[in-house]
Each structure stands twice: as C-alpha cells, then as structure tokens.
Amino acid sequence: MLKNWLKIALINYKKNALSTIINIFGLTIGLTGFMMILMHWNDEESYEKWNPKKDQIYAFQFFTKKDNAYGSTISYPMAVSASKKIPEVLDYVLFSTPSGYKMTTKYRTAYQKDGLLSSESFFNFFPFKIISGETKDALKTETSIAISKQTAMKLFGKTNVSGESIKIENKEYIVTAVYELPEGNTQIKPEFIINPVELLRSDREHWSDFKYGSFFMLKKGTDPTVFEKKFKRDIIEIRSAIEGKPLGINAQEFLEKYGPNDGLLTPLDELRLHAKASWFGVGDFKTILILFFLSVMIVILSAINFINLKTAESSQRGKEVGVRKAIGGTRSSLMMQFLLEAFIICMLSYVLSLALTELLLPNFNKFFDKEIKLNDWHIFVYSLGMVLVVSLISGLIPAFYLSSFKAIETLKGNFARSKHGIWLRNGILTLQLMISSFFIIGGLIVDSQVKHMMNKDLGFNGKQIMLITFNENSVKPWLKYERLKTQLSKIDGVEAVSYGEAVAGSNRRSSANMDSKNQTINSDYSTMDYNYLQFMGVKLVKGRWLNPELASDTINNMIVNEAFVRKFGWTDDKILQSTYSPGFDDNKKYKVVGIVKDFNFRNLKLKVEPIAFFHYKDAERKRFDLYNIQVKVKPDDIEGTVNNIKKYWENSVEPGYPFEYYFVNQRFARTFVQYQKQKTTFSILNAMVLIVALLGLFALSSLMIEQKLKEVAIRKTLGASDRILVFGLTKQFLWITIAAVLISIPISYYLMNEWLKDFAYRIDMPIWPFLVSFCVLLALTFAVVSIKAYKATKVNLVKYLKYE
C-alpha cells in the first residue's frame, strides 16, 4: 500500500510540477527564516547558562517611582546591610568597570583593558576554571590581582604565574590566580580582577552613592520576591530615614522625593534579555519576538500556499478519489495518503532549509555580530517540530477536503465547478494577502521611522570632533587635561580643544537630585570646559555661557537644558533666578546662568533628559573624573592632523598606552545601527513574504483559470473580447485583494502603533503606507493573474469545443 501511495504521489508531483516547486520553495524559505531567527533567540537566551550556580544568583536593579525608571546600581552600605539583615542572602558581590591599565612585569609591559574592580566574593559567584593559584582568598587584599589566561600570556608569555608581581600606576600587585574564561556565552568576562579595598572602605557610609553593580546569591529555593519585600522594608526604608534626617524630612517623604522605592532581582541567566536595567547592557527582547513572529508568519504563509494549491487541484484528484472509494477505499486511508504527500514535501523542504541555513549562516553571523553554529540540538528539535506541525495542518485540511468527495458526484464530472470548496480557497487566499499587506505597511512605517531618526536635528554638531581618551588614574587629571589642551592647540590642523564628560553616543554620565524651593527633580549632570557647549554647536536659549573671566563660573554656576526647565515646570526666568542644592555636592548652592536647547546625546529612541553642565572645577571630587580631551580638526587634511596628534600622543603623552580615539559623529551613528538592522531585516522578510505570496497566487490562479478554459472558449466563440475575458477572470482575485487589505489596515495600524510607542521621537502614523499597500497589492495581483488570464484568451477553440 505504501509503495502504491508513493507512486501516486510522484505522479501528482510531476503532473503539477509548478505548484510542487512553489510549495517546496515557499516552505524552504519560510523554514530557513524560522531556523535563523530561532538560532538568534536561542543564542541570546544562552548567556550565563554555563554557570553552575545560576539558579541562585540574581542581578540587582532599583526602581524609582517618581521617574518611573530602573537603574542597575547600588550603594555599598545598602549591599552590606542586605547581606546582614536579609537571612535569605548567602553572599553578595559588588563590581565596577575601570578603564584600562598599563601593566608592567619583569618580562614585558602591555596595556590591558576589559577588567573588573570587584569585592572578594567574585569567584564564589563565577567559578572560572583556575589554571594557576587558588580562588580562595584570591581577592582578599588590595594588592591581589587575578588575571585571565590571555592576560597572563600577554604579560608573562606563560600561564603558571601565581605569585608573580605586576606593577600598575607605581603600585605592586601579586598574581593570586590565573583563570580561563568560560566557553559559553557570557557578559562577565574580565581580563583581570582587582579588589578596590580602599574605595569600598571610603564608601561605607555613603548610602546614596549608587555607583556599583551587584549580584546577590540566595539560598536554594528562595523566592526572589521575598528578598525584594525585605529589601524594601529593611534596607530602602532604613536608608531613607538615615538620609532624610539631615534634611528634616521623614523616610516616607524622602522616598517620595528622591527614591529609589523598590529593589528587584533578575536571575543571572535572564540578565541579557529580560532585565529592566543591567550594568552590562540589555538585549532587545521585543525585537527578537517581533522577528520570531514574522518568521512564523512566513512559514504560515507557505502553509497557506500549500493548502490553497492542494484544494485547487481537487478537480484533477476528484475522479481518482471517486474510483478509489468505488473499489473499497476508506476515507481514513485516503487521508493518510494525502498526509503522506504533504509530509514528503515538508521533509524535502526541511532538508533544503538546513542546507540553505548553513550556506547563509556566515553572513547572518556577520550581520548580527555573532558566532552561531548549526550544532544545537534544540534548533533541530524545534524546527523539526515546526515541520511536523506544518505537515499536519497543511496536509490535514486538503486531505479532509479531498477525502470527503462522494464517489457518485466525482464520477459524474468535474467536481471543482460546484460551490463546494470555493469559500475555503477564497478565505485562505484572503488570509495570505492580509499577511502580505501587513508586511508592506509595516516595512514602509519602519523605513519612515528610521529615516526620521537619522534626519532629525540632534541639537549638536559632532562633525570633525575627535575624542581621545587618556589615563584616568593620573594623580591630577584636570592638570593633565589643561597641559594637553595647550600643547594640542599648537598642532597644525587643530581648530579647537575642549572637554565634556557627557559625550554623544556614550552612556557615560552621572545623575543626582536637584533641590530648589521644596521641589526636586532627578537630573543628569556633566562636567565640562568653559567652551564645550559652543564647541559642540549647541544653541543658547536664554542667559549666557560660562565665562573664564568670572570666578563664580568655576565655583557654583551651571547651564541647563530645556528638559530641566520643563521638569521643574517653571518659566525660564524662574529657573535663572533660583538656587539649587545638587545631590553630587551638598556643600553649596548652585545657580543657573544659561539655558540651552535640548540636544540628544544618548539615543533617539530615548527622550532628552534634564541635564546640568558645570565647570570641572566646581565640585572637587568631579575634577578627578576627567577622562578625555576633544579636538576639532580642520577639514583641509583630517588624516594628516590625526597622524600628527597620534605621533605627539605616543611619544610625549602616554608612552606604552594605546592611542584610543573616535570621531563623535561616527560614534553617535552607531546608536542607529540597531534600527538600521531592524529595517534591513524587515525588508528582507518583506521581500520573502511577497515572493512566496505572489508565487502562490500565480500558481493558484493558473490552476483555477485552467478549470475555466472551456468557459473561456465558449464565451470567446460568442464574441467576448480579450479585455472582457481578462477582466472576468481577474475580478474575483481583485475583490479578494481589496477585502484582504481593508481587513489588514486596522490590524497593521494597531501593531505598528505599539511598535512606535517605544520611540521618544517618533513619526505620526502616516496614511500613505496603507494607500501604497492597497495600490501595490492590487497592481501585483492584477499583473500576476492577468498574465495567466491573457494566455487563457488564446486557447484553441477547437480543442475545448469539439465534444460540445
């Protein structure tokens, strides 16, 4: 019986070669897209899975109710208090990420970055494989350093270096452990680890100095919400009482005014994709879900093609079904045969999709900056499961439909001319065109939003401005900056030199409360040189710039942006007349002397936040945070000027350190990469959908028009013109297209409006993509169907009328 079924299947595949090829092509494309997006998702979810303690480790975030914002930092005393007062806590670790260091050994000197400053429990949380030394007490003292295998080879030329010394900034460190970084995906991969004992000790009373990332290890089986409730009760409220007392307010008033109001935990292995905030950056889970949904839609579209084409072939299979039923064939055996035919097509498509995925994987990895390999059994299981589901659905509907034919009716003539089955085909075709319409509308809106972001006036000009980072560990970095400013200004091709802490395209900035007249807001703040805002081309709205000739401009004067004014809810004049007590400097009152237009340094997906700029000498501790110098080069010979600066830097400024720089406008452009990739991905999926849909439409219209060739011959004999015949054959498909687009419009509007809500600077929902979708689908449907319809008007009349 199986052999007979296979013979019948092959005969029908050959007989309907076009629809068979289209089915295989569509399913192959759909399954390839599904597998590649699934691999991308699986790769993102695999971060930190290597860690055997992942079920007990949680990353800490805080939530501030007033600003409806999440943060990824904690203060030292809050972390210590949580470990002592919350019995479910086994351990905690605090960390921060320093800039690189020049490290000197008796063998060689090298610059090393990508390290961590961490409290001593690091290896209890992240049990890296130790190849030299021991992890116990590896970070016990302030002169201890643990290094990776790669760093050991770089500095010593070997890995067995436990007990060796490394000199960093005139301080001797002893190597206590050499470790191997984990092979699995991880965001925690330090090249060296140092315990900042002195720094932690100095912060023991600073409850509001939120500058450390942290992980907590809980007892096995502990519900993290238990920790969160106790943290709010025993830590946040205690901290609020301590910090509120000098201000003359109680804990509740402090919480309402300053926050944070809650602490929450995210499991270590969910940190990459599901954290509200993360020290290491969070993935774009929403985009992955959208891509996965779209890839599934393409598979569904391919399945729709299969169902439509199989039901459209009913006229050719009707007599076969009638004969088999007449000689004793059962409905169940017929259904099994039709399911087998669908399964063969799907499995062939699956094999081809595996080959195509392997072929496209290098380009896919390059596009998403990954190193994915097609060797994860999860991918094969999930994709095979999808194949089985598609086989069942796309095979079951045609099988049920075809096996329901009555032997007497089918043996009398052409069953397909009856009304039975027409609604099924039309309904499925409508769904297919609805999906195509959504992709066209969505693609055009995504394209418009990305163009809107790229063409928006940022409020600053970073063109020809190069930022050079220098060693932050200088004894007096502000003096180093002032000396460099004088020397760099003398180099030919340098137009101007300045400094700003908040840099376009970088997340490096600080925030604090700003208090004035019993009102407070949370604001970013940035140190700068006098001329920095003019240097960046920012526009002044009211007031004045900082002036080096006024002593007060290096004591307590600052410039704010329009968002600062809006958040206070005051007029410009009131802002300029008021004084402010900033959280970063409790010792004095600050005054606003100028208001500048909003400009977006971060990302156009985010709204512009309030920010205050002041001279780097205003707050004593902030002058130690200088880390860059910015140079505006003349356009005449940019390459030559950069080479001259590099030569001076490497010879006279920081010998042994790399010359690290970037152009500000190019760095900010990186913030668009994610959205440009979304646009490109959506365009590719859009093209795939249209190709699959149009090929399916062409094959379906070919089968349906072939069923009407005798009718065409009769009407042509009676004098019908080619134009009337073409319109008559295509109008059914045009009406289906119109209905599909009209149904898709409200669905597309809702889904794309939800997508646009993620952008602070977004386009208003345009009407033209909906009109374009309507016109394009109508035109494509007419073009595809009319080709076959026109050929149908050239039929051989004798061939179709000789038996009438």
Number of domains: 3
Helical proportion? 40-55%
Number of helices: 26
Quaternary structure of the protein: single chain
Task: Let me know the average pLDDT.
Answer: 83
Strand coverage percent: 15-25%
Number of strands: 24
User: Which value, in Å, is the CA radius of gyration?
Assistant: 34 Å
Global outline: elongated
Topology:
Elements: H1 2-15, H2 17-45, E1 57-64, E2 69-71, H3 76-85, E3 89-96, E4 101-104, E5 109-112, E6 116-118, H4 122-125, E7 129-133, E8 144-148, H5 149-156, E9 165-168, E10 171-180, E11 192-194, H6 197-202, E12 213-218, H7 224-244, H8 251-257, E13 262-267, H9 271-274, H10 285-312, H11 314-326, H12 331-368, H13 377-403, H14 407-412, H15 422-455, E14 465-469, H16 477-488, E15 494-498, E16 510-516, E17 519-528, H17 532-535, E18 540-543, E19 557-561, H18 562-568, H19 572-577, E20 579-582, E21 590-596, E22 611-615, E23 628-633, H20 638-653, E24 661-663, H21 664-669, H22 673-706, H23 709-717, H24 722-756, H25 768-792, H26 797-801
Parallel strand pairs: 6-11, 8-10, 17-22, 19-21
Antiparallel strand pairs: 1-2, 1-12, 1-13, 3-6, 3-12, 4-5, 4-9, 7-10, 8-11, 9-10, 14-23, 14-24, 15-23, 16-17, 16-20, 18-21, 19-22, 20-21
Helix pairs in contact: 1-12, 2-10, 2-12, 2-13, 2-22, 3-7, 7-8, 10-13, 10-15, 10-22, 12-13, 15-22, 15-24, 15-25, 22-25, 24-25
